[in-house]
Amino acid sequence: MTKSEANLHGVFAASLTPMDESLNVDDDAFATHCRRLLLDAGCHGLAIFGTTGEANSLSEKEKVSALESLVEKGIPAEKLLAGTGACSVTETVRLTRAAIEAGTAGVLVLPPFYYKDVSDEGIFRYFSEAVERVADERMKLYLYHFPQMTGGVGFEIPLIERLIEAYPDTIVGMKDSEGNWARIEEICQTFPGFETFAGTERFLLDTLEAGGVGCISATTNLTSRLAREVYELHKDGGKDEARASQKHLTELRNTMEGFPAIPALKATMRHLTKEESWRNIRPPLVEMDEARTKKLLESLPEGELL
């Protein structure tokens, strides 16, 4: 596989999931948000039901229903990367089949994260079981590496190599959210053509220059226009301009990292859009207090966001 044959590339927002007053997925608000990100804010695509989307606070049925609703409301399924990872391989298989049938561009799959000290052999068997059970040539699977959220369970380089060798037409890329640039660079260099996304826009330009395909980031719910600018400048060969734009983008990302991610993003979205559904967040997460929200909003260049 060469880079020109990549299934996915560019700036992806790890989409937030709006909730209604009963803390159910607000289907209308969700479609509005996705449409805004794709049509107005410059995203190449969206990763739904990931960490930022409160995926592990949603049931399998809720995720399938919300995905079907997005497609029914006109969100292009081919622009969606659906999170389908679960501790249960049977749940991952069912969610993955639903995503394939909906027409999504691929699935983003966490490793099974409950048990600790899981071996590479155990993770390989889990993914092998999932791929063999789904048994669909349309399946495009992206590994989701986020050891800070999965108790250290993740994808080391030898395991990635083994999975690619076993399923080269199915396991086609990954999102690396560990925050370790040296690791992302090594993956890009070791597996040319493998669709490597940085899990933060901080590394967007570096990832592109190393041969990766883009970023999938929580904060691109807000910064996607700026991230798209970096992507296009790189594509057009404007190295100095791209680097300057990346510097500003990184500064914005750093500002956001001083606050709890999902509550901060929802508070900012409510402020920018005046949409009340952004007030709502599922326990165990809670909204930010007024003082921290005020501090956050005062630190952001509002005219450049969303």
Please, could you describe this protein's structure?
The protein is of the alpha/beta class and 306 residues long. It has a single domain (3-304), classed as Aldolase class I (TIM Barrel, Alpha-Beta Barrel), CATH 3.20.20. It contains eleven helices and eight strands. It has helices at 27-40, 60-72, 89-102, 120-134, 157-166, 181-190, 204-210, 220-235, 239-256, 261-273, 290-299; strands at 10-14, 45-48, 80-83, 106-109, 141-145, 171-176, 195-198, 214-217. It has an eight-stranded parallel beta barrel with strand order 1-2-3-4-5-6-7-8, surrounded by five helices. Strand 6 (171-176), helix 6 and strand 7 (195-198) form a beta-alpha-beta unit. Helix 2 (60-72) packs parallel to helix 3 (89-102), helix 3 (89-102) packs across helix 4 and helix 4 runs parallel beside helix 5. The longest helix has 18 residues, at 239-256. The two termini are 34 Å apart. The mean pLDDT is 96.
Q: If you consult CATH, what is the topology? A: TIM Barrel
Q: Largest beta sheet: what is the strand line-up?
A: 1-2-3-4-5-6-7-8
Level-1 CATH class name? Alpha Beta
Q: What is the CATH superfamily?
A: Aldolase class I
Question: What integer value in Å does the Rg equal?
Answer: 18 Å
Sequence of secondary-structure elements: EHEHEHEHEHEHEHEHHHH
Helix tally?
11
- How many beta strands in the DSSP annotation? 8
Largest sheet: 8 strands, parallel, barrel
* Overall geometric form: globular
Distance linking N and C termini: 34 Å
